[in-house]
Structure formats: C-alpha cells, structure tokens
TrEMBL record:
One Gene Ontology term of the molecular function aspect: S-adenosylmethionine-dependent methyltransferase activity
Protein name, per record: Protein-lysine N-methyltransferase EFM2
UniProt GO cellular component terms: cytosol
InterPro entries: Methyltransf_16 (IPR019410), SAM-dependent_MTases_sf (IPR029063)
Gene: EFM2
PANTHER family assigned to the protein according to its UniProt record, in alphabetical order: HEPATOCELLULAR CARCINOMA-ASSOCIATED ANTIGEN (PTHR14614), PROTEIN-LYSINE N-METHYLTRANSFERASE EFM2 (PTHR14614:SF156)
Sequence intervals crossing the membrane: none
Pfam families attached to this UniProt entry: Methyltransf_16
SUPFAM superfamilies named among the record's database cross-references: S-adenosyl-L-methionine-dependent methyltransferases
Listed CDD domains: AdoMet_MTases
C-alpha cells in the first residue's frame, strides 16, 4: 500500500505496508517513511494543537538532494513497529552510497524509536497546551519546553494535574467564592509554588490578566525563565506577565527574585500574596509539611485570600495527600470548593497515555484565623489525623475506587 494514499484515505498502516529492507528501498523512501512515523509529544486533549511539522535536517549539498517530507503523522498499528525501527538502526544500508544520508536514516529511526518508548526515553521536547482564557473568549496555545527528563528532576515535566488546573482557571476566576475579585487584582497578588515548567502560572497570568510570580528550586528556574519568555506575547495580549524566583519550601521566608522581577515588577523578598497556586506538589514524605509551611509564610491573612491546589490521586502517595489535607485544616484553612476530574500523563518507560484521577481544592481562612494576630506558625500545628470531615471521607472513597487507575 502506498503511504501517501493511506494517509489521504485515513487508513491504518500495518508494519508490512512499510518499505521492507530486503527490497532495498531508496534513501528517499526510508526518510519519507520515518517522517510519516513521527509521534508528536502527547497532548492530553484532542483540542491541543500538534501542528509542528517534522522535517529532516539536510546539512550538506549532497544531502539536500534528499529533501524532507512535511507531513502529519499517519496512524499505524504498533505491532511489530519497534522491531521494524530496530532493524533499520542495525542495518548497514549497504545499497545506499551516501554515508551522510545513512546517518540521517539511522538518526531518524532512533528518534522514532525513542518517541515510542515513553517520556523518560525522550530528550528535550516542546509542546503546546491549548488553554481557555475565558468562557466566551479565545483559547491560547501556551508553549512549554521540557528538558530531558530524569527521575530526580520531576519538575522538568508538565503533569496532568497542571494541565487540568490550567484549563479550570477561567471557571474559578468567574466564581466569586473561589477567587474573589479575580478580574481586578492589585499588582503582586498571585504566586505559584513548585511551578515546574510553569504552565499553571502562565495560564493564571493570562486568565487573570495580572502579574504572576512563578517559583521553584534553582535547578528548575532556568527552564522556567525560558518558558516565561517564550510566552510573553500571549500574556501581553491578555494584560498578564510572568516573573520568576527561587523559593525553597524549607526556607519559605527567603526568596531569590530574578533580576527582571526586581527591576520591572518591584517584587519584594517578603512579598505576601492573595492567591497561591500549586499543582502536583507532593512526591516525598516531607512535602506536605514543607508545602503548608510555604503557604503559611506567603499567604495574606484576609478573607479574600485563596489557595488552589490540584493533586493526582496515586495510591503510593495517599499518606502525603491525607497529611496535606490534615495540615491545612490544622493551620486554620478550610475547603470552600473542590472536585474530582481525570487527566492523562505520559510518564514511564512505555509509550502511550495513562489516565490519572485528580482532586482540586480551593482553600480559604477560617474566620478565627484572619489577621496577623491570629497567625499559626507551622511548628505549632497539631495534625488531627482522625478528625475526618466530609472532604476527607470523599477523598478516601476516591482512593478506594482507584482500582487499576494507578
């Protein structure tokens, strides 16, 4: 079957429909096929744009004679595809005379193979996330760069909970009980903790039309700066802006602001915020305590103050999620809005998407804890693990119902 006809007719190719090495296909044929097999970085919803066309980079005059094919990926039955790509990589391609072109083919086959081996096997990628700015307004494609992923730097990946929260922001902004005065915020009102790649903070700057301070550890902030810069034009269209800072949850009273945040926005190291956002911030036993400590250090003590958190429900991290809930309540914060939803992650050694159940919450101060005179220090918190309210009971039911989710 001809690849172009299959693409045009919307048919699904089998590996046997592809050029077979024993037939000695031309270099052009192999390059075209490998281009058509491009697997774009996963998007977690059909509305996400994946319009970056893949082309082969031909660097020499001889290699320019084998031009790249710009095409959208075709559907193909994955059975046998890994073996097909591996055979191309292992072949000496002796019937192709140009050594540079051989290198192109081997490199392209290796990339196609890594794309199908899960996010951990891939190098740096950039992908776009379509985020609605308002109910009736336009959606924007926020472009996020993710460096090569390692298990000890999970903040370099965009997680499902970040995407879900980013898409929910316009709804929260339209709900006065969730984000009071969201459309008329004074400067320096919004902070994101554990920003990672920055999707939530950038989406907040766009939706709320204000400046947002994105924070994380030093090794994460460099890429955070890059993403803030690459989305400046989008934020400008919505009267928003993004700045970055290093904020360590173990020492939340100190903050190392970027030069841009100091010069352009006049942020202060001791800044407090009306709204604080965090997505998927718990992945070690210490994190619940550290996160609540950071929230208490940076959240304004006023009735309009809110903390918005989205957490994936993974059985392995159930103790951390429950501890976070208990610590927030013990600190004088209450849930004023919450819900459950499903997203997708591409973490792991195998390709494909994995469904993830997520819990989002909006927190406000209990009346008795308003005002600095009633502030509770983190080390004064006594966690009442057995005092389960309705939210805690529902959370336990959700964990119990995960089954094969994780």
């Amino acid at each position: 079957m001809d690849n172009e006809n299959a693409e045009r007719n919307g048919q699904v190719l089998h590996v046997l429909d592809l050029p077979q090495l024993y037939t000695r296909p031309s270099a052009q044929e192999l390059l075209n096929t490998l281009t058509l097999l491009t697997s774009e970085p996963p998007s977690w919803e059909g509305s996400d744009t994946e319009d970056d066309e893949t082309s082969m980079d031909v660097k020499s005059a001889r290699r320019q004679s084998i031009s790249a094919v710009k095409a959208q990926p075709v559907q193909i039955n994955p059975e046998g595809l890994t073996t097909y790509l591996t055979r191309i990589i292992a072949s000496d391609l002796r019937w192709i005379e140009d050594d540079d072109v051989k290198e192109d083919i081997w490199e392209a086959a290796s990339i196609r193979l890594s794309e199908r081996s899960g996010r951990t096997a891939m190098g740096a990628i950039s992908r776009k996330f379509r985020i609605p700015a308002a109910k009736e307004g336009p959606s924007e494609d926020i472009e996020i760069h993710e460096p090569a992923l390692t298990a000890d730097n999970l903040g370099l990946k965009t997680w499902a909970s970040s995407y879900l929260l980013s898409r929910r922001l316009w709804r929260l902004a339209a709900d006065e009980s969730s984000l009071p005065g969201a459309k008329d915020l004074p400067p320096h009102s919004v902070l994101e903790l554990g920003s990672g790649t920055g999707l939530v903070g950038l989406a907040a700057a766009m939706v709320l039309g204000t400046d947002v301070l994105l924070t994380d550890l030093p090794e994460i902030v460099e890429n955070l700066d890059r993403n803030a810069l690459s989305n400046e034009e989008i934020l400008d269209r919505h009267n928003g802006s993004a700045y970055t800072a290093v904020l360590d949850w173990t020492e939340p009273s100190s903050m190392e602001l970027s030069l841009k945040a100091v010069k352009e926005a006049d942020y202060q190291e001791s800044q407090h915020f009306r709204f604080i956002f965090a997505a998927d911030p718990l992945y070690s036993p210490e994190h619940p305590g550290w996160l609540v400590q950071a929230i208490l250090a940076r959240l304004l003590r006023e009735a309009a103050a809110r903390v918005v958190v989205e957490l994936p429900l993974r059985t392995a991290y159930q103790p951390q999620v429950e501890e976070f809930l208990n610590r927030m309540q013990a600190a004088g914060l209450k849930i004023c809005n919450e819900g459950y939803e499903t997203g997708y992650d591409d973490w792991g050694s195998q390709g494909g998407r994995k469904a993830v159940r997520c819990w989002w919450t909006v927190w406000s101060w209990e009346t008795a804890y308003l005002g600095e005179s009633h502030a509770v220090e983190h080390d004064e918190i006594t966690v009442q693990a057995n005092d389960m309210g309705e939210s805690h009971q529902q959370l336990l039911a959700e964990f119990k119902g995960l089954g094969d989710w994780d």
